[in-house]
Amino acid sequence: GDSVTQMEGPVTLSEEAFLTINCTYTATGYPSLFWYVQYPGEGLQLLLKATKADDKGSNKGFEATYRKETTSFHLEKGSVQVSDSAVYFCALKEQEGGNTPLVFGKGTRLSVIA
Amino acid sequence: NAGVTQTPKFQVLKTGQSMTLQCAQDMNHEYMSWYRQDPGMGLRLIHYSVGAGITDQGEVPNGYNVSRSTTEDFPLRLLSAAPSQTSVYFCASSYSITGAANYGYTFGSGTRLTVV
Questions:
Q1: Residue B101 C-alpha, separation from nearest chain A C-alpha, in angstroms
Q2: Per-residue pLDDT averaged across B59-85, rounded?
Q3: Which of B10, B23, B74, B107 to substitute to test the interface with A, most A CBs within 10 Å?
Q4: How far is CA B88 from its chain centroid?
């Protein structure tokens, strides 16, 4: 079945450092890819998405590019802030998957220190 | 525009008690689902519904019941609470299960449940 694998956390960075959170996927069909963010004590919020190969999703300084050849959707940010401290989830949804729900990775906790 | 509303935000139950976690959305979404989030386990799907009157089991359905009598509401019932059900529960919705490929899910803010 479909699956999403994220890098293990926690990830601890200093403010203004470069961030990469790796995400790779396995899918039987053609998936849409998502990154969600969960701030402390809150629900998940959609951060960005991409629905076809080579598309780049971007939001709030975060970017991720849909790489079909490497089945990856790595999340990047050039300069992190303390306010980016959160848990980040990578997810996929088959575009022709009928009633199959979104498949989530286990999440990566990011801590940014001043 | 309230989005997805979950109540209560916090709850403590004794083993064997029953309760209902409420989830309501005002976006006319057909698809609704319940997840539990446990440390190191990510999100696990409990039950989902693709429309009023239709429900199906997810990855971890045991000990939970759902029904979908209206488009707006999707309550999750714990029949006889156990300590293993201590978790944070999230409700999520989408315009449709197939539409989720374009739009993803909208999540509620969660219910933190402790069973003692």
A1: 5
A2: 97
A3: B107
A4: 10
Contact: B104, A51; criterion CB under 8 Å: no
- Residue A67 carries which DSSP code? B
Q: pLDDT tens across A12-70, in order? A: 999 999 999 999 999 988 899 999 999 998 999 999 999 999 999 999 999 999 999 99
Q: What stretches of chain B show up as alpha helix (H) in DSSP?
A: 100-103
Q: Give strand pairing partners of A33.
A: A50, A92
Core vs surface per residue B4-29: b (16+ CB within 10 A) or e? bebeeeebebeeeeeeebebbbeeeb
- Asked if residues B1 and B101 have their Cβ atoms less than 8 Å apart, the reply is no
